[in-house]
Amino acid sequence: MPNDRPRDDVRAPLPAVDVTHLPSPLHLYLRALLTSRKPAEARALPTLAFARRNVALDASAIARYAQLCGFRDANAVPPTWPHLLAFPLHMLLMTDRAFPFAMLGMVHLANRIRSHATLSPGDRIDLDVRSGALHAHDKGQAFTVVTTARRDGAVVWTGESLYLRTGVHDALGTPYRAELSAGAALEASRTWQVPADLGRRYARLSGDYNPIHLWPVTARLFGFRRPIIHGMWSFARVLAEVLPPHADDLDLLVEFKTPVLLPGEVTFWRAAHGGVFELRDAAGAVPHLRGRWQAPAPSSSSFHTEPQS
């Protein structure tokens, strides 16, 4: 397993480790538990990269995902689907012995997706996941995990996931700041019920069996009074509402604000003009996420940072 690499390789540039057989979700979460012994210290990220080759875009799995997330065209590949395929590689990276931070309790702050071409069920893609930039955050150390999908050698999709390890002092990197402000004029558009079993249903599709998403008893072990839904389900659900059909050149950004407790009710808010949106609580007062979409995808990169003084 990649976790068995010797410790003295931490600083050396490493080629991507080809993953031919994905570990089970149980095995991945046992690895995550073992990372809890890592100290909350600011440390540079090693060069870590994992790859899967010739990954099929399975039509039946995509159709089930589209139905659960509200995408109307079950025959299209939602722009969030490659993230789902890459998530086990994210876990391998963050549970690697060389990775400096404990994974349990990690907070998913934001996600940026750039889609450059139409993907179709039956396509085969190569996935590359590697450690990215560090960002200083007022609650700890933020870092990015960068995913690239290629079809026949050409880049068709990229994703940047921003995670936060809380409790780290003197964090490294340029200071992170949210790109999306709360000042946009938005109108209430939809109200959705989120049932108690939604986290378990999404886990079966995504392989993300984090205990905070499953049952009240497992969520309480991590400080939540009820399970919370996966942030990427919430992001996919609002994208299903706002994206035009057959859009193949997109720049998508989401910033996660507060968790959605299960069961519950959420409200969807959007700008009358433009691609800004929010998912809020039932009263429309507390944002769960804030996002925007635009096309075509610009060439500018990464999350917003503040200049260091």
From TrEMBL:
<dbReference type="InterPro" id="IPR029069">
    <property type="entry name" value="HotDog_dom_sf"/>
</dbReference>
<feature type="domain" description="MaoC-like">
    <location>
        <begin position="184"/>
        <end position="244"/>
    </location>
</feature>
<protein>
    <submittedName>
        <fullName>Acyl dehydratase</fullName>
    </submittedName>
</protein>
<dbReference type="Pfam" id="PF01575">
    <property type="entry name" value="MaoC_dehydratas"/>
</dbReference>
<dbReference type="InterPro" id="IPR002539">
    <property type="entry name" value="MaoC-like_dom"/>
</dbReference>
